[in-house]
Amino acid sequence: MEKITVNLCLGTTCFVMGGAKLQELAETLPAKYGDKIEVVGKTCLELCSSGFSKAPYAKVNDQIIGEATAEKIISAIEEILNPKEDEKVENDEDEE
Question: Which of 5, 13, 19, 87 is 20 to 30 A away from residue 58, measured at CA?
Fold first, then answer.
């Protein structure tokens, strides 16, 4: 499995709205993730004008998370690492 990339928006709006707290995510991830996760701070993910949701924003691989919290990000990581049985079947069929 490829590394999961977590991009954190550290633009002004996101930073003020809670992104500053997310900078510590890499140090607070559960040890069970080992080296499967890469956390990267980005100057701006340019999602504020998209009308998607509220800041702060994060991306876990290609999944955008609005009003991002450490809990929401960890939940998205868990979904990728431990897909539900239905998703496993679909993914297995795609690989054939």
Answer: 87
